[in-house]
Amino acid sequence: MPQTALPCLLMRGGTSKGPFFRAADLPADLPTRDRVLLAVMGSPDKRQIDGLGGAHPLTSKVGIVSTSERDGVDLEFLFAQLQPDKDTVDTTPNCGNMLAAVVPFALETGMVQPQGATSTFRVLTLNTDMACDITVQTPGGQVEYEGDARIDGAPGTSAPITINFLDTAGSVCSGLLPTGQVRDTIPVEGEGFAPFSIDVTCIDNGMPLVIFKAEDLGRTGYESVAGLNADSELKTRIEALRLAAARQMGLGDVSGKPYPKMTLVAPPREGGAITTRSFIPHVCHDAIGVLAAVTVATACVLEGSVCEGVAVMPSGASKKVSVEHPTGEFSVELETDPADPQKVTKAALLRTARLLMRGEAMVPASVWQR
Question: How far is CA 66 from the centre of its chain?
Fold first, then answer.
């Protein structure tokens, strides 16, 4: 039987990439849809040799887009995280990097029409019911991909894409501070290490994170990605901490979940606000995720968080928070309520995206026939 041809665009969004699909082109039945996505990406296989996946969590992502019938919303986006060597399709978390490619995809496929030199559309991320306004450059009615904007973790420069998040607090958890505290001391036990307790900030402003000082686990926070990924003792302790913290965050057993992410922090070295090393959750990120950066930046403005005394913050209600990571920095524009400096009223950032390939993903007939 012939394979099933599935229209898609392969796109880079920020520092991630993957195929984007119209929701209407995928099976409505969710188990079948997930089997199709696994087949498209070539999972489970650590090389993803029989699919489009790039053998890394950052290149094992899928975007699903539809027009919206909700008032005030233009597009709806469902993000799917796959893993190279697992047969899972997780639509629970957000991905701010892939989010950057949603409007370019919609314009390229005619789902929305350009509005002039720039085009702004409101996008609802279905994973967490999070809305944002995304602005792209559309001179002459075409998506502009070339420009002078640079983001660390992606080579060269591109046209800027501005994402203004409207309400990110409690994207997966019950609220911004799911434990009800800005700082918690969590006891950790497990095999292969002595029991310990550690101060953390459990926070969710777009991405559930457990933030802690690198020095509290005997590290500097400036280690290389390769060094941290080879540090099996550290990874064992971090995973035990993740499982313990998640229970206090109301997330239950997250042993099979990609969240909360684990973020080590240290004082900045390159003129930014804070240095990070982010585990996603078992592999150290080469950079830092978009919404993880927003969440870390938010923790930096909260009095009493573990970032206090570590972060170097600008003054004023409007702050540009530069989050340093292994391959550069990620700047987040934060505004706080003058009457309540611990309440974030705006989180905006700059990303880039590019259309890499237009075509059809081929799905084995044994997996799905239209």
Answer: 20
Average pLDDT for residues 46-54, to the nearest whole number?
A: 98
Tokens 């919206």 -> residue: 68
pLDDT at 339: 83
b/e code 353-364 from CB counts within 10 Å (16+ = b): bbbeeeeebebe
CB contact at 8 A, 328 and 287: yes
Q: How many CA atoms lie within 13 A of 340 on its CB side?
A: 4
The sign of the torsion formed by the CA atoms of 345, 350, 351, 354 equals: positive
Is the pLDDT at 232 greater than 80? The verdict is: yes
CB-neighbour burial class of residue 233 (10 A; exposed 0-12, middle 13-18, buried 19+): exposed
**Pairing relation of β-strands 208-213 and 261-266?**
parallel
Cα dihedral 335/341/345/347 (nearest 10): 40
pTM over 0.85: no
Among the listed ranges 35-39, 223-227, 299-303, 334-338, which one has the minimum average pLDDT value?
Answer: 334-338
Closest by Cα among 1, 7, 2, 28 to 359: 7
Domains of the chain: 4-160+353-363 (3.10.310.10), 184-344 (3.10.310.10)
Residue 342, CA distances (Å) to 304, 308, 315, 335, 348 in order = 10, 13, 13, 10, 17
Question: Tokens 């306004």 correspond to what residue?
Answer: 133
